[in-house]
Amino acid sequence: MLQVDGVTVAFGGIRALMDVNIDVEGNRITGLIGPNGAGKTTLFNVITGLQRPRSGRVLLDGVDVTGKGPRTRAKLGMGRTFQRLEVFGSLTALENVLVAVENRGGMGRAARQRATDLLGRVDLARMAGVQADVLPTGQARLLELARALACEPKVLLLDEPFSGLDANESARLGDLLESLTSEGLAILLVEHDMEMVMRLCTRIHVLSFGSIIAAGTPGEIKADAAVQEAYLGAPVGAGSGS
To answer: N or C terminus of the chain with fewer C-beta within 10 Å?
Structure first.
């Protein structure tokens, strides 16, 4: 559903990404992990059209979108949440989602009902009338997810969605993401919570200093000596993993 082919990004003389290749299948959650500064957010920016690569291609459902902007990619079925929260603080939770629904052509009562249903999907129905900038961080992240889903994506890129969530919220979000993939959605997940990554992802790519150093199943990644040295440090469950 999503293919990144040979992407290189340079800022002046510094190469942030070097010949990166990843693939994201439908009906699956694919992980992208690595230490801080590895280039994960830069890669997300390339995939979503916020950063032009020096070389390489991005294909969405077989269509080369490398030269297309973020709005066009969104219309073609690409959605995203951000590491740094990006909600409309002066709008209510319902209005935040309604903006996205209307951007997809929804109107009137049907659009409002769609936005209400999406808030319910992420367990925020009770917060519909609350202004977004007073929501706790965990709930604001769920609001971002509801707004992304309103764009009816084929591929959803999630940048640290579990950050700020407690254990119960994380478990519920994990269940929700699994249910979304069962409906056909492809998810690319950047996350430092290794317990959730290993539970949810069927395939994981590991990025370090701008290069992919490993790709495989959770079991293969946990056993990879290069990954242990660059990022994990200790077996999952033995420490924080960040």
So the answer is: C
Q: Is the pLDDT of residue 239 over 80?
A: no
- Integer Cα distance of 129 and 138 in angstroms: 17
Distance CA 211, CA 43 (A): 11
Judged on CB neighbours under 10 Å (0-12, 13-18, 19+), 11 is exposed
CA 121, 125, 127, 132 torsion-angle sign: positive
Three-class SS of the chain: CEEEEEEEEEECCEEEEEEEEEEECCCCEEEEECCCCCCHHHHHHHHHCCCCCCEEEEEECCEECCCCCHHHHHHHCEEECCCCCCCCCCCEHHHHHHHHHHHCCCCHHHHHHHHHHHHHHCCCHHHCCCEHHHCCHHHHHHHHHHHHHCCCCCEEEEECCCCCCCHHHHHHHHHHHHHHHHCCCEEEEECCCHHHHHHHCCEEEEEECCEEEEEECHHHHHHCHHHHHHHHCCCCCCCCCC
Tokens 């269509």, residue located: 63
Contact 30, 203 (CB under 8 A): yes
CA distance 66 to 73: 9
CA 133 to chain centre: 21
Query: Could you read off the pLDDT of 185-237 as tens digits, one per residue?
Result: 999 999 999 999 999 999 999 999 999 999 999 999 999 998 988 776 655 44
